């Protein structure tokens, strides 16, 4: 029995090593969250005494609920706006024949490769002229014009949908919007879910955008900016930072576990088509 257990460990040694590499940072964050502020600055890795009240203290020192609301508003609205604009754009690039579609797709790829810092100054000046700096709207409203990475991802998924289904719907009298809403969207749900999850994760963890537009307007901060609130003039309360980090990561981890079902459905659907 012992020999077979050792053989199993040896066979999966690489997977075990990789799992330890990925889980070690989470273990460090979790254990530090239960330490005192003084012990968090030492080399100890196990709490000498457990302090779960750290998870309550972060709510008394920082308005975490307000920041949570701002983050949810930013992530949910940006994801919804991205889907409303990117799905029709991806459908037009993947399934419709029109002059300039290839050139437009090249432009989308170029936009995807464009570093955001290149257009930061002109975009900031534009939003300042309309009086929206100091809020999260300069990060949400551009999603109504689509997102290059999301359009590319959705287009690649829509290419896997057989054209026969679309042609059959057109023969039955459906217009392009009806084909998109009644045929393409139900078949593309796994791809749409994956794209939405990517966008939600990006906006939830976004630090650069909220720092650029809301750094001087604290009531509009997101959770990523809130973590800096535990940094004082002469020291950082690492135990509170780690406790807040766990609370910030929790919704993302929950969404990820729910997203696994969508990814499995996508693999199954692609296999059926093949």
UniProtKB/TrEMBL annotation:
GO terms for cellular component: plasma membrane. It comes from Actinokineospora alba. GO terms for biological process: transmembrane transport. The chain crosses the membrane at residues 12-35, 72-93, 105-127, 139-158, 179-202, 238-259. Residues 68-259 form the ABC transmembrane type-1 domain. InterPro entries: MetI-like (IPR000515), MetI-like_sf (IPR035906). Keywords: Cell membrane, Membrane, Transmembrane, Transmembrane helix, Transport. The keyword Transport applies. This is Carbohydrate ABC transporter membrane protein 2, CUT1 family. It is found in: Cell membrane. SUPFAM superfamilies: MetI-like. Its main location: membrane. It is a multi-pass membrane protein. Belongs to the binding-protein-dependent transport system permease family. It holds the Pfam family BPD_transp_1.
């Amino acid at each position: 029995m012992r020999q077979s257990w050792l053989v199993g460990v040896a066979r999966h040694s690489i997977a075990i090593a990789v799992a330890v590499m990925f889980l070690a940072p989470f273990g460090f964050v979790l254990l530090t969250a239960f330490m005192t502020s003084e012990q968090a600055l030492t080399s100890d890795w196990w709490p000498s005494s457990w302090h779960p009240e750290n998870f309550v203290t972060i709510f008394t020192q920082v308005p975490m609920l307000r920041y949570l609301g701002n983050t949810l508003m930013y992530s949910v609205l940006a994801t919804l706006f991205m889907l409303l604009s990117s799905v029709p754009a991806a459908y037009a690039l993947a399934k419709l024949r029109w002059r300039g579609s290839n050139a437009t797709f090249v432009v989308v790829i170029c936009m995807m490769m464009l570093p955001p810092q290149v257009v930061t100054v002109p975009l900031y000046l534009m939003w300042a002229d309309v009086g929206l700096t100091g809020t999260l709207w300069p990060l949400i409203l551009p999603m109504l014009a689509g997102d290059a990475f999301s359009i590319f991802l959705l287009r690649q998924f829509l290419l896997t949908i057989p054209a026969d289904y679309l042609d059959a719907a057109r023969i039955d009298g459906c217009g392009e919007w009806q084909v998109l809403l009644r045929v393409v969207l139900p078949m593309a749900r796994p791809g749409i879910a994956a794209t939405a999850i990517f966008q939600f994760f990006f906006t939830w963890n976004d630090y650069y955008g909220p720092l650029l537009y809301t750094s001087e307007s604290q009531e509009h901060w997101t959770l990523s900016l809130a973590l800096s609130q535990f940094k004082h003039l002469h020291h950082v309360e690492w135990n509170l930072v780690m406790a807040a980090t766990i609370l910030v990561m929790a919704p993302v981890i929950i969404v990820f576990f729910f997203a696994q079902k969508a990814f499995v459905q996508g693999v199954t659907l692609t296999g059926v088509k093949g």
